[in-house]
Design a protein that fits this description.
Blueprint lengths: L1 H24 L4 H13 L4 H13 L30 E3 L4 E3 L1 H11 L5 H4 L12 H11 L13 H15 L9 H5 L4 E3 L2 E3 L5 H8 L4 E3 L4 E3 L1 H11 L10 H13 L9 E3 L1
Parallel strand pairs: 5-7
Antiparallel strand pairs: 1-2, 3-4, 5-6
Helix pairs in contact: 1-2, 3-6, 4-6, 7-11
């Protein structure tokens, strides 16, 4: 069923891409057509399947300690998931560092369930054949913040440090192409092929972009998290891949998430 649905969505994506291309050639509004396509798919978002699996994983007793994640503190108290994602990344005193959702889940899986880091990250990102527990858990927790306004704190000194580092990383140019995050996301009206690039230096674009991740990617048939999104951006810049949950990744996410403050969270979403 899932395999058929993914294939149908990918076929739909291809057909719309052809339609959009024809519209562009005839002077049609390409951006409008893409938005109509996204809206048409939104009612049947396969991300629901990842959310359901994530909720099951959250409640399952797993790892050497045979406990669930229902005592994992995501910042609003042990086991509380409602609204937690809208306030991440944030500082956690028990780890003495700022964490995003994935790094916090990893912390709980290793400290509470007794998994090794390697075990917890055996499949950090699904590949079509192997499903990622981390992506499913992220989908579930993120989905529990739908309708909640983003409210990422800067009250702690380490939260402010993370934001400042993330801002520097956003504008840092390097690699064989001398790219930065800002190369693609620092100006308005940029596009790669048919994909509009949000200007993440503008509040409206930053809010719209951040609040729609995690997202189900039609072209891949997988749900993708923000850790994956950053990793893929680094790949396209020809940078070394980010270490999962590293301070670098969390700093960048802190910068992006803080810039989305005030917007209503609306994910997991669906993207091309």
């Amino acid at each position: 069923m899932m395999q058929w649905r993914g294939g149908a969505l990918m076929l739909g994506a291809a057909l719309v891409a052809v339609s959009v291309g024809a519209q562009a050639q005839s002077g049609g509004d390409t951006i409008k057509k893409i938005e109509e396509y996204r809206q048409a798919l939104a009612d049947g978002n396969p991300a629901d399947l990842w959310e359901a699996r994530g909720e099951d994983l959250w409640k399952q007793k797993r790892g050497p300690k045979n406990v669930s994640l229902e005592r994992c503190d995501l910042g609003k108290g042990p086991g509380v998931v409602k609204g937690a994602y809208a306030e991440l990344p944030r500082y956690f005193a028990d780890a003495d560092r700022v964490m995003d959702l994935e790094s916090r889940l990893l912390h709980c899986m290793t400290t509470q369930q007794g998994m090794t880091r390697a075990e917890a990250l055996k499949v950090p990102f699904g590949d079509g054949e192997k499903r990622s527990d981390m992506e499913a858990l992220s989908a579930y927790v993120a989905g529990e913040s739908r309708g909640v306004k983003m409210n990422v704190s800067q009250a702690h000194a380490k939260e402010r440090q993370a934001y400042a580092l993330g801002q520097k990383l956003f504008y840092y140019r390097g690699g064989p192409h001398d790219f930065a995050c800002a190369t693609c996301h620092g100006e308005a009206n940029k596009r790669i092929r048919l994909q509009d690039l949000p200007n993440l230096t503008e509040t409206k674009d930053a809010q719209k972009a951040y609040t729609t991740w995690p997202a189900y990617r039609v072209s891949q048939g997988e749900l993708r998290t923000m850790q994956w999104r950053l990793n893929d951006c680094f790949r396209q810049q020809r940078f070394p891949f980010l270490e999962f949950g590293s301070d670098t990744s969390v700093a960048l996410l802190t910068f992006l998430a803080r810039n989305a403050n005030g917007a209503e969270f609306n994910a997991p979403a669906i993207k091309r």
